[in-house]
Amino acid sequence: MRNIISLCLLAVVLLTSCGNVEPRIIAPGEIWPDNNGVHVNAHGGGLLLHNGIYYWYGENKCDTTSSAMVGVDCYSSKDLVNWTNEGVALAVSDDAESDIVRGCVLERPKVIYNEKTGKFVMWFHLELKGKGYSAARAGVAVADSPTGPFRFLRSGRVNPGVMPLDLQGEEAKAKWDALDIDKYDKNRNPQAEEWWTPEWREDINNGLLCKRDFDGGQMARDMTLYVDVDGKAYHIYSSEENLTLNIAELSDDYLSHTGKYMRMCPAGHNEAPAIFLKDGTYWMITSGCTGWAPNAARMFSAPSIWGPWTQHENPCRGEGAEITYGGQSTYILPYGDNFIFMADIWRPKHPSDARYLWLPIQFDENGVPFLEYMDKWDLNTFKAVEEAK
Ligand code: DGJ
Prior knowledge:
Mean pLDDT: 95
Radius of gyration: 22 Å
Bound molecules: (2R,3S,4R,5S)-2-(hydroxymethyl)piperidine-3,4,5-triol
Number of helices: 5
Structural class: mainly beta
Number of strands: 25
Strand content: 35-45%
């Protein structure tokens, strides 16, 4: 009898407390005020969960230019809704000789924690001040605390003088040797042939631009980081004039590249990579390359980080799917058994007013991820608020 009464009491407590759970609303595209009531300024960003606290790192955007005038901002939160401004995690420099001098382009910072060294490691896409997007470098910085300050270590192209995994073997070597680097380069060859022909695609596939950049290192623009279940970390970035993604293994301390890397989807023209692992399958969502304007997302899956990667349909469904509801992917956050797709709605004329598009990732009956736009959804239920009521 006592047991039955206890069970009834427990049920009453549970029902009452369930009824009292405050919704935790995510509202894509709206102003997202921080603890000071100021719109979160962390664009092209990523999240890190450390000791029960979420840290959101992203580009500080000012009102008039997309160049980096401040650096990388950091916010902290326990519930993913209420964010405390932790200040500038990585500051741009006032030293004109620094790679990260104020006015450079510093984009898509991501931070991972290294269990072995106890350090927080940030990688980002860096363009040198005044050089447009030609430098195409990866930058790295390190900190003892998640909120920084991060110390800039260096920037550069990636894996100079190293052949990628997908271009090894006699046959690949013969095709590589036959590639003519000037063939499609209008700056170096007045008779240059057109891009986007089947022959050009074949040459890109065989490593034309990888060969061009072989000695100096591969171009590295839009990027993300991924720490796998075994603790190995990977730097995934748009390379070869944004035509080909590279997946490159990081060293044990996460501060450099090991030289092991593969090219993914050559001539696929992918930017904005974001990745997650579910039930043994790696899923990657990317965008096409249309500057700050939104385009249709792409999606790939693989049984291993090293592929083979298979392309799927656009994961977005419904109205606005062809432009990712106005956003461009930046990160995918595992959250319990769920995953949150995070994207930026850019405002290039007023960069600091760029908005955030966070949506729950849903899965169809075959386990394939998809997205549907929701005006407002609840982090407690992963459902649109209308459905959650
Ligand atoms: C698209 C990229 O995804 C952004 O990070 C930024 O580099 C813009 N292009 C610049 O046009």
